[in-house]
Amino acid sequence: MNLPRINAGSKEGQSTEGFGVESTLRSFFGRTNYAFKDKYLFEANLRYDGSSKFAKSDRWGLFPSVSAAWRISQESFLSEASWLNNFKLRASWGKLGNHRIGDYEYIPKIATSVNYSFFDEVADGVAEVVAVNENLTWETNTSYNLGLDLSLLEGKVQFSADYYNRLTEDILTPVPVSQIFGLPAPLVNAGAMRNKGIEFVIGTSKIQGDFTYDLSFNIGFNDNNVEKYAKPDKSNDRLREEGSPWNAYYGYESIGFFQTDEEVLNDPKVVGAPIQKGDLKFKDQNGDGVINADDRVVLGSEIPGTSYGVNLSFGYKNFDSIYVRNRSGGCLRSFERSSGVSFCKRREGTSKTFRSLDSRNP
User: Fold this and answer.
1) What's the pLDDT tens digit per position in 157-171?
2) Which of 51, 209, 278, 306 is geometrically suited to a Cys-Cys bond with 329, CB 3.0 to 4.6 A?
3) Could you tell me the pTM of the whole model?
4) Sequence-separated (6 or more) residues with CB below 8 Å from residue 116
């Protein structure tokens, strides 16, 4: 038997390893552009992608997009506006596909050297180690965008604004399975998530002799929401559920610390957890006097709701320098090993704290 991969053969006497994978993406695409009097602009794109990460019956996906723009500053009724260099309205719609998953996810995988009992003797065997879904296909992202661009005073002042609405469907993700299933959850096309928001950029630039500079400020606001998910996933300290941000932080809301022995004795606390003064105190969300899994809430998201930044560049003759400063508002997660407490630190400076339930932290 010809086995081109070392790991496919017997492990007896084997001191080296070797394996191989093959992954292929084949794409066909085309584009057409049309411009009338440099005022009315149109573009259409079409791409046809095939990925070896999916079975032959679901391998190919068709992804179109169109965009249009109107350069209002080129119209005759603005011909006398010498202060206006460019005023453009634009709109676009398009689809893209995502195939970023592991190789051979749709093919059953068999592990060798799995021992089992056969007539009171240990025999070598094989076993299926991963559940598969033969119907996997492309995750799709449909985007809508409206925007405008302004350039004033011979380009010394620029401004742009964008509204976007992106819907991600058939998300490639594992969904919770029963513990008696016996294998890791397979990937499925489950769920839909929407991101929508607005972005603004304003900037200025100037050339004064040998000195030049460019300064711009940008800010964006984004809303992320799960619109469809086959089965709520509340595993560990993350949540995937309709109406919440994708992969939201999920746990207990901290309301301070136990400061007196009376609080330790009387206030609601996690059942079975040793509590003393100085430990975190969690909010009893349902008022039943006990802190348990029913008191967990959404505490934040790793997806920023606000982002902003400043870009500055200046030059003098052959010398130039660039300064970039960016910041985003969301939730940064850290873990305090000594206390077993996870912190949801908001980038704006405020924070919430949550604690996870597991076998070591009941």
Assistant:
1) 899 999 999 999 998
2) 306
3) 0.72
4) 122, 123, 125
Contact 244, 225 (CB under 8 A): yes
Whole-number pLDDT of residue 326? 62
Q: Is the dihedral of CA 337, 340, 344, 350 positive or negative?
A: negative
Distance (Å, rounded) from C-alpha 105 to C-alpha 53?
7
Find the length of the chain.
362
Please state whether beta strands 139-152 and 121-130 pair in parallel, antiparallel, or not at all (unpaired): unpaired
Tokens representing 284 are 């009893």
Question: Based on the number of CB atoms within 10 Å of its own CB, is 226 exposed (0-12), middle (13-18) or buried (19 or more)?
Answer: buried
Q: Please give the Cα distance from 238 to 166 (Å, whole number).
A: 23
Report how far residue 28's alpha carbon sits from residue 51's, in angstroms, rounded to the nearest whole number.
Answer: 12
Amino acid identity, position 157? V
Q: Give the containing element (helix H, strand E) for 60.
A: strand 60-71
Between β-strands 254-257 and 280-282, what pairing exists: parallel, antiparallel or unpaired? antiparallel
Are the CB atoms for 93 and 111 separated by under 8 Å? Answer: no
